[in-house]
Amino acid sequence: MLDLEETGGAYQVLARKYRPATFSDLIGQEPLVRTLTHAFQSGRIAHAFMLTGIRVVGKTTTARIIAKGLNCFEAEGPTMEPCGRCNSCISIAQGRHVDVLEMDAASRTGIDDIREILDGVAYKPVEARTKVYIIDEVHMLSKQAFNGLLKTLEEPPAHVKFLFATTEIRKVPVTVLSRCQRFDLRRIDGPKISDYLGVVCAKEEVGCEPQALARLARASEGSMRDALSMLDQAIAHGGSNMVTSAQVESMLGLMDEGHKVDMLEDLFHGRVAQMLHLHDQIHEAGADPVTMLGELGMLVHELTRLKIDKDLPILNQYASDVAERLSKLAGDLEIGVLVRCFDMMEKAFHEARMAEQKKAVVDMA
Fold it and tell me: 290 and 214 in one domain?
């Protein structure tokens, strides 16, 4: 991935250093890349795109890459492989291109803000081939602002493209959605995130345990930027050029994988006193009770899915000894027991989040 921002010699966090700069850098977004590739090759490029997905999944970054593809000087026309070296690509990456205008609709929601855009739509671009308007969190616009956009979206000038990004697609009026080509950016699979974190560690000359990267990938919940931020923190937390599972667990307040299985085995075999003693030890070691309960709930969910489909690759993310114990546990338990246990843990999780005595609530659960 290309880093085009001036750092002035200061340390640059991994999430910025390895921010996607080309379409090939967009991990886990193959349907979007495939559709745009065909559109760019055939010249059938829509006048407005709606990028939607969870937070920090890469919507604004994708919009900038599309803007670079439309305006790269090294190509004679729109390209799926912007060079990243020409003045246009560099200016867009740094957010200072005169013809690529970004607006945060969360802070500029009114019709007057949209009028500023509409007043400039009629004028051709100064430097670029295409004038691009990137509007982030577009669902925050007022009703009047959306209405002001409709006419331009219906009959846009040939030299203008609109790129909208939103986390709340249901709040965008249907009249606007019908005038845009919609792309749903997916959560990135855990294995893809952990594999890429391994690549980053190699480039940064930092050692890593595969299980540590798997823990970071699960904690990121499908967001590469969150995963890179946590990796940055883990490297600093350890104080050395090695990222271990123990460091990640300590940093995030997580349980050791083996201890999670110990607690479930004690729970399902009725060894309540042993389970509570183990909880005390884990709590004293720094694990957060609510996070611990959430992890146990997710593990019960994985056991339930494994009970239904033994071919699921769920156990690949665990060490071999832990995976073997989990497989045995799934085989020993009835699915009704697992479902009931998950329901109780989910209820206790929400109660513990709101309680002052969180550990006591988890103990009682």
Answer: no
Per-residue pLDDT, 330: 86
Same domain, yes or no: 287 and 346:
yes
Q: What is the pLDDT of residue 2?
A: 45
Single out the residue of 238, 198, 204 nearest to residue 217, CA to CA.
198
> Which residues contact residue 283 at a Cβ distance below 8 angstroms, ignoring those fewer than 6 apart?
289, 292, 359
Q: Is residue 2 part of a domain?
A: no
As a 3-state breakdown, the chain gives helix, strand, coil percent values, each rounded to 5, of 60, 10, 35
Contact 169, 50 (CB under 8 A): yes
Strands 100-104 and 48-52: unpaired
Residue 63 domain-assigned (yes or no): yes
Among the candidates 235, 252, 269, a domain finishes at 252
pLDDT value at residue 289: 87
Q: What pLDDT is stored for residue 310 in this prediction?
A: 79
Rounded distance, CA 21 to CA 3, Å?
8
Residues forming beta bridges with residue 64, ordered by sequence position: none
| pTM, entire model | 0.79
Domain span holding position 44:
14-184
Q: Where among 142, 161, 184 does a domain terminate?
A: 184
CA dihedral 200, 206, 209, 212 (to 10 degrees): -60
Exposure string of 44-64, with b = 16+ CB inside 10 Å and e = fewer, is ebbbbbbbbbeebbbbbbbbb
Residue 9: the pLDDT is 60
Radius of gyration of the chain measured on its C-alpha atoms: 24
What stretches in the chain show pLDDT beneath 50? 2-6
* Res 171: pLDDT: 93
Give the Cβ contact number of residue 197 at 10 Å: 27
- The answer as to whether 4 is a domain residue is no
